[in-house]
Amino acid sequence: MDCAKRTGSIVAAWLALGTGVALAQPAPVTPAPPPPATPVALSAAVETCETSPLPVGRVASFVGSMPATTGATQMQMRFDLQRRHPGERHWRIVRGAQGFGVWATADPGRAGFVFHKRVDSLPAPAAYRAVVRFRWNAADGTIVRRARRTTSACDQPDLRPDLVPGSLRAVLDAQPALAVYTFVVRNSGRSAAGPFSVRVAGAVAGVPGLAAGGQASVVVVGAACAPGSMVDALVDSDHRVDETDERNALRRRCPLAS
């Protein structure tokens, strides 16, 4: 066999062999299935509870959740706000709270329903909670299921200052008919008091402020009281401090010796 024939045979054999080899292909990548959605639980809870000396900063928010159920096409939820003052045994419904006491309805086709309610400017001191009612309705309007949950309490202490009159002492001043009164004032509240005034025997003195739990001895120079007579003193005489208790008056027997 000549060279040309041998070369042709080799090429033919190589082509035949090459057409019989299957090149490896990458295996198709199957995307991982998404993680299963966390089922919605039947629950009610306090979401936030913010306290403040100022009414605008006292906030409570509540959240309720409910899962879909077989046979129901509609989910509904209702929040009722309740309040209990210090010393009270029973909770009472707060009437007129905006958005409370009405039924909220979920969009159709949902696997669960989560709803939030918020209330601002809460009066203090008091505790607040929400009673959450749930119902599942069939397509014809009949109620398939009912449930009820109560949240924990959001305590709103009164954080305002509370100026309290204390002891009153006096000595005669060097000037005739005048006395130097020393009037003790305490702040038994939970926040600092800003500037205020005190009045003793008709004379007034200013106080730059008083920290929570603090005490100040205020010196007032006024008319000397007659021994045995009564002396009136008043804390926050200009009513500049918003207090827990506004009963700031004091009446004492004249502390000057006869």
Task: Give the key terms.
258 residues; mainly beta; 6-stranded antiparallel beta sheet; 1 helix; 44% strand; rod-shaped; disordered N terminus
Largest β sheet strand count, sense and barrel closure: 6 strands, antiparallel
Q: In total, how many beta strands?
A: 16
Mean pLDDT: 88
Structural Rg: 40 Å
* H/E element sequence: HEEEEEEEEEEEEEEEE
Structural class estimated from helices and strands? mainly beta
Q: Work out the helicity level.
A: under 10%
Low-confidence runs (pLDDT<50, min 5 residues)?
3-24
Proportion of beta-strand residues: 35-45%
- Tally of DSSP helical segments: 1
**Shape descriptor:** rod-shaped
Quote the distance from N terminus to C terminus: 154 Å
Describe the structure.
By secondary structure, this protein is mainly beta. It is built from one helix and 16 strands. The chain has one helix spanning 3-19, and strands spanning 43-50, 59-67, 74-84, 92-93, 103-105, 112-119, 126-137, 143-150, 154-156, 163-172, 178-187, 196-200, 203-207, 215-223, 230-235, 249-253. The strands form four sheets. Strands 3, 4, 5, 7, 8 and 9 form a six-stranded antiparallel beta sheet that branches. Strands 13-12-15-16 form a four-stranded antiparallel beta sheet, with no helix packed on it. The protein has a three-stranded antiparallel beta sheet with strand order 1-2-6, with no helix packed on it. A hairpin with a 5-residue loop joins strand 10 and strand 11. Residues 3-24 have low confidence and may be disordered.
